Automatic annotation (TrEMBL), chain A:
Source species of the chain: Methylobacterium isbiliense
Coiled coil regions in record: none
UniProt keyword list: Amino-acid transport, ATP-binding, Nucleotide-binding, Transport
Higher taxonomy: Bacteria, Pseudomonadati, Pseudomonadota, Alphaproteobacteria, Hyphomicrobiales
UniProt xrefs under PROSITE patterns: ABC_TRANSPORTER_2 (PS50893)
Limits of the ABC transporter domain: 12-269
Identification of the protein by name: Amino-acid import ATP-binding protein YxeO
Gene responsible for this protein: yxeO
Pfam families: ABC_tran, BCA_ABC_TP_C
From TrEMBL, chain B:
Transmembrane segments: 27-46, 58-76, 114-136, 142-162, 169-188, 194-213, 225-244, 290-309, 340-359, 371-403
Alphabetic keyword roster: Cell membrane, Membrane, Transmembrane, Transmembrane helix
Name of protein: High-affinity branched-chain amino acid transport system permease LivHM N-terminal domain-containing protein
Cellular compartments annotated: Cell membrane
A Pfam family: DUF3382
TrEMBL record, chain C:
Name of the gene: livH_3
Chief localization: membrane
Keyword Transmembrane (UniProt): yes
The protein's name: High-affinity branched-chain amino acid transport system permease protein LivH
Keywords on record: Amino-acid transport, Cell inner membrane, Cell membrane, Membrane, Transmembrane, Transmembrane helix, Transport
Pfam family, one: BPD_transp_2
This protein's record includes keyword Nucleotidyltransferase: no
Compartments where found: Cell membrane
PANTHER family named among the record's database cross-references: BRANCHED-CHAIN AMINO ACID TRANSPORT SYSTEM PERMEASE PROTEIN LIVH, HIGH-AFFINITY BRANCHED-CHAIN AMINO ACID TRANSPORT SYSTEM PERMEASE PROTEIN LIVH
C-alpha cells in the first residue's frame, strides 16, 4: 500500500471506527486517512457500511467506538465524535451531500445557497436584532452572500434558474446544486454521498470536472462514496474499499483495481477459491 | 351527390347516457347510511323526566327529513357532476396543449398581491364604515366589537403562523401563551398598578420566557408528538389556573383589571377625561374605538415583524427547517436554537394578544383559554395557507366572523319554530366547516409561497413543492 | 392497605376502559400515521347509543335480564358505532390521505367538535343518568371497618377487556386481515402493489377501533351510570396518553398503558388531590413523550439519513 505524499498531513483521520446497531455490526474497526487536497473515494458493495461511515463523520450518528479527527491547515483539531451534529459543519467545517437529495424544494435556488451561508449572515445581522432595526452592516453582508451564491451558480451553470424553485430542477441540476450549497459553507472537507447516481455519462464527466476544480481551486479535500467506477477511478487520488463494514483495501486506484480481495468482494470467486480468499481477507 | 364535407376532427362522441340507475342506487346508499347514523341518537331524544328517570321521545319524522335531505343532496350532486362531465366531453378545451400556457395570475396570486393593502385599507377605516353603515357611532358598537374580536384572532393567527407556518412546528397548545399573557397582565396591573404600556411588554416577555421553558424539552420531538405535548401543556396550564385559586383566582378568575386609558387620559366623563380634554361630548364608544385601533396596531406590528424576519437569516432558517431539518443541520444551523426562537417569538405575540384581551375585558378566567381556542387558531393558520399573511387574515375573518353572523339568524325562527336557537348550531356548523374546508383546500386558501430574496424575478412557488414540516 | 387494595381494583377497572379506547388510537396511528382526534368523541357517542338502546330494550321490549340486555346493547352499540367510524373515515379522512399531514389533523379536530356538539344538539346538554343496574358486589375482605369490594361490574369490565385483547391479538397476528394490516403499517405502497386492498384495510381498522370504543362506551355507561356530551375530550386524551405510554402501534402496549394511566389517576385521586388528577395524566403524557417517545413496548425509530 503506497501512500500518497498528501497522506502525511491528513485532513481527516479515522481510527478504529466501530458502529453497532443492536446486534448488527455495520462498521467494524475501520481506520483510514483522507489526505489534504486529495479526492478520496470510499467504495464497496451495497450494504458495506459506507453511508454509515459518512453519517458518523458528519455527526448524524454517534459511533459506538473509535475516533475521527479533523485537522485544519492551521493545526486546529476537532474530534468529530464529540461534536454536536451541527457543529461538525459549523466549527470543523465538514460539509456533505445526501444519497437522496435533500434540497429545500419549496425555496428558490438562490435561497438554498443563502441558507447555507446562515451562520456568517446571522453574525452580520447581529443575531437578528441589528437586522431588525435595519442597520446597514447586514445589507452589505447579504449582498456579499448573494455574490458568492451567484459565483457558484455560474460555476455550475444554473445562474439562469436562480429564482426557480429548487424542486423544479431536473435531477442532474439538483445534484450539482446540492454540491454548490455544501460548498457555500466554505468547508475544509466535502463529503459526497453518491454524487453521480442517476447521471448520464456526459453529466458524470461534468461532475468530474467540478470535483477536480473544487480540489484544485477551493482548497477543499473531497471524500466521496460512489458506485460509478468511471467516476471513482478517474478522479480519485486515493481509494478505500469496504466490505461488510471492514476495510479490505486502501491505496491508489490502480492498486485497488488489481487487488484480489476487492475483485472477490465485487465479483465473487470460484467455489474452490473461497477458502483461500477468506483466509487472505481475514474473515 | 357532392362529396361529403371534409372530415372534421372525429365527430363528437355520442352523449354518454346518464347512468340513472347507478346514481339512484348511490344516493339511496347515502340515505341508508344516514339512517343508520341517526338511529338511535337522533331517532330518540332522552330527557330527564320529573322522576329523574329518562324519557324517550321518538323523532322519526326528523330522521326521515334528514335521510330525505341527504338523498336529495347526493342525487343533485351526482346529477350536476355527471352533466358537467358530459358537457366537458363534448366541447374540447379552448386551451389546446400546443398553445402557450396561460400566464395570467390566478385568483390566489392576485389575492396575495392586492389582498394585504386592501385588508389594511378596510381595517383602518372600519369604525368609520361601521358608523356610516349603522347610522351612528353608538349603533355601530356591535360591529366594532366584532372587528376587535376578528383582529384579535388575526393577531393570534399571525403569531402562531411564525411557529406553524414558517418553522413548521406543530403547536396545539398556543392558547397557553395567550393565557400566560392575559394572566400576567392581569396580575401585574392589579397587584402593582403598573400602566398598560409597562404591563404589555412585560407580559409578552413572560410569555416568551414561558415559551422557551416549554419549548426546550419538547422541540426535538417529531411532528405529531410535538402536537400532543403542546396540547398537554395547554391543558395543564388551564387546569392549574382553575385550581390554584390563591394565585389565579381559580374559576372566578381575576377581575377589576384597570381599564385602558388614552396615554394617561381615562375614558370617563370626568373633567380630566379624554372627552373633556378634547372638548367633545363623552361617549362610551371612545374607549371601544381606541381599543379597536390598539389591536389593529398590535396586529400590524406582528405582521411587520414577521415580514421583516422572513427576509433575515433567521426567517430563512425557519423556512429551511420546515423544509428539511436534516439538511439544515448539515449546513451548520443550530436547529434547536432556531426552533426555540420561533417558539418564543410566537409565544411573545400570543402574550401581547393576551394582554390586550385582559385589558379589553377587564376580567380574565380560565374558561376563555381552553383547547377549542387553540384549535380555532391552528385552523385559521392552516386554512389561510401556511406562511401566508393575507391568507391567515382572510381565514380569521371567515372563521370568526362567520359564526358570529350565525348568531343573527333569528330570522329563520319562523322556519324552524320558536325553539330554534342558532347558538346551539354555531359550533356544530363550525366543526363541519373545518372538515369541509380541509377537503376543499387542504393546503389552505393561499397555498403558494413567495421567495424571500430574488435575483431577477419574483416567482411564486407552488404549494405542492413546499413542505409542511415534521416538527 | 385496604384503601390501597380497593384503589388497585378501581384503577384496573378504569384502566381497562382507557385501554379499550387506546387500542383504537394505536391501530389508526400505526396504519396511517394519524392521530384520530375524533376517537374520544366517538367513544362518547357510543355511550349515548348504548344508553338509548338500553332504554329501548328494557322499557319497550321489556327485556328483564340485565345480562341479556347488556350483551344486546353492546352488540347494537358496536354495530352502529362502527358505522359512524366507517363514515367518518370515508368522509373526513380518506380524501385527505395524501402527504400533507396537517389537513387530516384539522379535519379530525373538526369532526371532534362536530360530534360533541351534534350530541349536545340532538340530546340536550344535561347529564343523562341510567337506572342503577348490576349493583352486586363481592366483598373480598374487611379490615378496620373498611370493606374491599369487587363489584360485578368491575369483573365484567376487566374480563371483557382481557377477552377482547386476546381476540384482537389473535386477529392481528394470525389472520389474513391482521397480516394485511401489519403490511399496510409497514409500507402502504408495497402492500398495494402486492394486491392488498389498502382502502378496505384502513376502513376496517377504523371500524374495529370504533367497535372497541363502543365496548368501552357501554362499559363506561354501566360503570358510572351517567354520561354527558362533554365526556369525549378528556378520556380521549387520556386514552391517547395510554397508547403513547404503551408504545404507539402496539396492541398490548395500549392496554398496558391504559392500566397504568387508570392506576395513576385512581391512586392520585385517593392519596393526593382529586382536582389535579387530570394534570397528573397530562403530565405523564408530556414526560413520556419527552423522555421515552417510543413508549414501553414500542420500537425505537432510527432516523434514516
Amino acid at each position: 500500500m503506497s501512500a500518497s505524499p498528501r497522506l502525511a498531513d491528513p485532513v481527516l483521520s479515522v481510527d478504529h471506527l466501530t458502529m453497532r446497531f443492536g446486534g448488527l455490526v455495520a462498521v467494524n474497526d475501520l481506520s483510514f486517512r483522507v489526505g489534504r487536497g486529495d479526492i478520496t473515494g470510499l467504495i464497496g458493495p451495497n450494504g458495506a457500511g459506507k453511508t454509515t461511515v459518512f453519517n458518523c463523520i458528519t455527526g448524524f450518528y454517534k459511533p459506538t467506538e473509535g475516533m475521527m479527527t479533523l485537522r485544519h491547515r492551521d493545526g486546529a483539531e476537532y474530534l468529530l465524535e464529540r461534536l454536536p451534529g451541527f457543529q461538525v459543519n459549523r466549527r470543523a467545517r465538514v460539509a456533505r451531500t445526501f444519497q437522496n437529495i435533500r434540497l429545500f424544494t419549496g425555496m428558490t435556488v438562490l435561497e438554498n445557497l443563502l441558507v447555507a451561508q446562515h451562520n456568517p449572515l446571522m453574525l452580520a445581522s447581529g443575531y437578528t436584532l441589528a437586522g431588525l432595526v435595519g442597520l446597514p452592516g447586514f445589507r452589505r453582508a447579504q449582498g456579499a452572500a448573494v455574490e458568492k451564491a451567484v459565483a457558484w451558480l455560474t460555476r455550475i451553470n444554473l445562474l439562469h434558474r436562480a429564482d426557480d424553485p429548487a424542486g423544479d430542477l431536473p435531477y442532474g441540476d439538483q445534484r450539482r446544486l446540492e454540491i454548490a450549497r455544501a460548498m457555500c459553507t466554505d468547508p475544509v472537507l466535502l463529503c459526497l454521498d453518491e454524487p453521480a447516481a442517476g447521471l448520464n455519462p456526459r453529466e458524470s464527466a461534468q461532475l468530474n470536472d467540478l470535483l477536480r476544480s473544487i480540489r484544485d481551486d477551493d482548497d477543499t479535500s473531497v471524500l466521496l462514496i460512489e458506485h460509478d467506477m468511471s467516476v471513482v477511478m478517474e478522479i480519485s487520488d486515493h481509494v478505500v474499499v469496504l466490505d461488510y463494514g471492514t476495510k479490505i483495501a486502501d491505496g491508489t486506484p490502480a492498486e485497488v483495481q488489481s487487488d484480489q480481495s476487492v475483485i472477490a468482494a465485487y465479483l465473487g470467486v470460484e467455489d474452490e477459491e473461497v477458502e483461500a480468499v477468506e483466509a487472505e481477507v481475514g474473515v | 351527390m357532392s362529396a361529403p364535407a371534409p372530415a372534421l376532427a372525429a365527430a363528437p362522441a355520442a352523449r354518454p347516457a346518464l347512468d340513472l340507475q347507478a346514481i339512484l342506487k348511490d344516493a339511496l346508499l347515502f340515505a341508508l347510511v344516514t339512517f343508520g347514523l341517526c338511529v338511535p341518537v337522533v331517532a330518540y331524544r332522552t330527557d330527564l323526566s320529573s322522576t329523574s328517570a329518562l324519557d324517550l321521545t321518538p323523532r322519526w319524522g326528523l330522521v326521515a327529513i334528514l335521510c330525505g335531505l341527504v338523498f336529495l343532496a347526493r342525487l343533485a350532486q351526482r346529477l350536476i357532476l355527471a352533466s358537467r362531465d358530459a358537457r366537458r366531453a363534448l366541447t374540447p378545451s379552448p386551451r389546446q396543449a400546443t398553445e402557450a400556457v396561460d400566464a395570467t395570475p390566478n385568483a390566489a396570486q392576485s389575492v396575495s398581491r392586492f389582498g394585504l393593502p386592501l385588508f389594511l385599507g378596510v381595517a383602518l377605516t372600519f369604525p368609520l364604515l361601521a358608523a356610516l353603515g349603522t347610522g351612528g357611532l353608538s349603533e355601530s358598537r356591535y360591529w366594532i366589537d366584532l372587528g376587535i374580536l376578528i383582529l384579535t384572532y388575526v393577531m393570534l393567527g399571525w403569531g402562531l403562523n411564525i411557529v406553524v407556518g414558517l418553522a413548521g412546528l406543530l403547536d396545539l397548545g398556543y392558547v397557553a401563551f395567550y393565557a400566560v399573557g392575559a394572566y400576567s397582565y392581569a396580575l401585574l396591573s392589579t397587584t402593582f398598578g403598573l400602566s398598560f404600556w409597562i404591563c404589555l411588554p412585560l407580559a409578552g416577555l413572560f410569555a416568551a420566557l414561558w415559551g422557551m421553558i416549554l419549548g426546550f424539552p419538547v422541540l426535538r420531538l417529531r411532528g405529531d408528538y410535538l402536537a400532543i405535548v403542546t396540547l398537554a401543556f395547554g391543558e395543564i396550564i388551564r387546569l392549574v389556573l382553575i385550581n390554584w385559586s390563591d394565585f389565579s383566582g381559580g374559576a372566578a378568575g381575576i377581575s377589576s383589571i384597570p381599564r385602558i386609558t388614552f396615554f394617561g387620559l381615562p375614558f370617563t366623563a370626568d373633567e380630566d377625561g379624554f372627552a373633556a380634554s378634547l372638548g367633545i361630548p363623552f361617549s362610551p364608544m371612545h374607549r371601544v374605538v381606541f381599543l379597536y385601533y390598539l389591536i389593529l396596531v398590535l396586529a400590524l406590528i406582528t405582521n411587520l415583524v414577521t415580514l421583516r424576519l422572513r427576509r433575515l437569516p433567521i426567517g430563512r432558517a425557519w423556512e429551511a427547517l420546515r423544509e428539511d431539518e436534516i439538511a439544515c443541520r448539515s449546513l451548520g444551523i443550530n436547529t434547536t436554537n432556531t426552533k426555540l426562537t420561533a417558539f418564543a417569538l410566537g409565544a411573545m405575540f400570543g402574550g401581547f394578544a393576551g394582554s390586550f384581551f385582559a385589558v379589553r375585558q377587564s376580567f380574565v378566567s380560565p374558561e376563555s383559554f381552553n383547547f377549542l381556542e387553540s384549535a380555532i387558531i391552528l385552523a385559521i393558520v392552516v386554512l389561510g395557507g401556511m406562511g401566508s399573511q393575507i391568507g391567515v387574515a382572510i381565514a380569521a375573518v371567515a372563521m370568526v366572523g362567520g359564526p358570529e353572523l350565525l348568531r343573527n339568524l333569528d330570522f329563520l325562527k319562523p322556519v324552524f319554530g320558536e325553539h330554534f336557537d342558532p347558538n346551539e348550531y354555531r359550533l356544530l356548523l363550525f366543526g363541519l366547516a373545518m372538515v369541509v374546508m380541509m377537503i376543499w383546500r387542504p393546503r389552505g386558501l393561499i397555498s403558494e409561497r413567495s421567495p424571500s430574496v430574488v435575483l431577477k424575478e419574483r416567482k411564486a412557488i407552488s404549494g405542492s413543492l413546499v413542505k409542511e414540516g415534521h416538527g | 392497605m385496604e384503601v390501597f387494595a380497593q384503589q388497585l381494583i378501581n384503577g384496573l377497572t378504569l384502566g381497562s376502559i382507557y385501554g379499550l379506547i387506546a387500542i383504537g388510537y394505536t391501530m389508526v396511528f400505526g396504519i396511517i400515521g394519524m392521530i384520530n382526534f375524533a376517537h374520544g368523541d366517538v367513544f362518547m357517542l357510543s355511550a349515548f347509543i348504548a344508553l338509548i338502546a338500553f332504554l329501548i330494550l328494557t322499557s319497550f321490549l321489556g327485556i328483564a335480564s340485565v345480562v341479556v340486555a347488556l350483551i344486546l346493547v353492546m352488540i347494537i352499540a358496536m354495530a352502529l358505532t362502527a358505522l359512524w367510524g366507517w363514515s367518518i373515515e370515508r368522509i373526513a379522512y380518506r380524501p385527505l390521505r395524501g402527504s400533507f399531514r396537517l389537513a387530516p389533523l384539522i379535519s379530525a379536530i373538526g369532526v371532534s367538535i362536530f360530534l360533541s356538539n351534534f350530541v349536545q344538539v340532538v340530546q340536550g346538554a344535561r347529564n343523562k343518568p341510567t337506572p342503577p343496574m348490576m349493583r352486586e358486589v363481592i366483598v373480598l375482605f374487611e379490615r378496620n371497618g373498611y370493606a374491599v369490594a369487587l363489584s360485578y361490574r368491575q369483573i365484567v369490565i376487566m374480563v371483557t377487556t382481557a377477552v377482547l385483547l386476546a381476540g384482537f391479538w389473535y386477529l392481528v397476528q394470525h389472520t389474513p386481515l391482521g397480516r394485511a394490516q401489519r403490511a399496510c403499517e409497514q409500507d402502504r405502497k408495497m402492500a398495494a402493489l402486492l394486491g392488498i386492498d389498502v382502502d378496505r384495510t384502513i376502513s376496517l381498522t377504523f371500524v374495529l377501533g370504533a367497535a372497541l370504543a363502543a365496548v368501552a362506551g357501554t362499559l363506561y355507561l354501566l360503570y358510572y351510570g351517567v354520561v354527558s356530551f362533554s365526556d369525549g375530550f378528556v378520556p380521549g386524551v387520556k386514552a391517547f396518553t395510554a397508547a403513547v405510554l404503551g408504545g404507539i402501534g402496539s396492541l398490548p402496549g395500549a392496554v398496558l398503558g391504559g392500566l397504568i394511566i387508570g392506576l395513576v389517576e385512581t391512586f392520585w385521586s385517593a392519596y393526593f388531590s382529586i382536582e389535579y388528577k387530570d394534570v397528573a395524566a397530562f403530565s405523564i403524557l408530556a414526560i413520556v413523550l419527552i423522555f421515552m417517545p417510543s413508549g414501553i413496548l414500542g420500537r425505537p425509530e432510527v432516523e434514516k439519513v
